[in-house]
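SAMPLE LOG
Freezer: B-3
Tube label: C17
Construct: single chain, 323 aa
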Amino acid sequence: MDTRHLATLRAVRDHGGVTAAAAALHLTPSAVSQQLRLLARDAGVAVVERVGRGVRLTPPGRALADAALDVAVALERAEASVEEYRSAPHGVVRVAAFQSGAELLLPGLLHRVAALGGVRVELGDEDVAQDEFPALTAEFDVVVAHRPDTGSPWPADLVVVPLLREPLDVALAPDHPLAARAVLTPADLADQDWIAVREGFPVAGVLDAVAAAAGTPLRVVQRFNDFGVVEALVAAGHGVSLLPRHTAGRRGARLVPLAGVRAGRRVDALLRRDRAERRVVRRVLDALRAEAARFADGGGAGPAGGGGTVPADDAAGPWRPDR
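STRUCTURE (predicted):
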């Protein structure tokens, strides 16, 4: 079987159809269809079937797409082994990140990568619901994603590299009656107006835990996903919120640590197994982990009036994919 045809089959599965796969592969839809026909001929089974105006993978097509991942990993591993004798890794690495994670990590990442030479990073702005992050790995080499401390783990078929744990603090207007406290509990916040993110986004799950600990539903008056806007609303006295410690507190809100609930989020890098084998991707990933370690080890600003940072469970060090 032609490995290019196997890669095309994976793209059809990952992107949900021939047209989307063609765009991702920079091919025409007819070229993708032709490769699928050739793959079916070589495999001796139908790999896709028509459904309405589109196609879906047949059971043997799905099995072949799964096996194609192992082929891709082996090819990338072979390429990486040879490249070690040729030159320093170089090329373009595509990195996607959610907005507050991008603000925290990407400026420093670009500085670190610039010092490497021969490596260029293309950035993607992808602020999506938690369950949509894995799909981004089909388009990007590295996806910086976040989930609540107690959130569901990422899919087992991805390579997951922990970056840091970031506390979520209570954000209040400077003249709010609770702003002078050193620490707050869910009971202190039960009767407040809340500004929350949309349902399905990681911080929303932490807010649910606060409500459970308080023993009453919280009164959410606004939902907005841009933390900069949320902090501006909080600073103007329109409600309280939960905001990430390292990037909030610069627009006038006061941050107070929350006790009684494990209020934090995990920031991870997600990669497909084959891309995790690429030396240039690993080089960028090591730079990303080094940048994250500045915050995980206690760097960066803590909340006004207390705290510091909470170390990550996984110390940053040289990372390599499992072999």
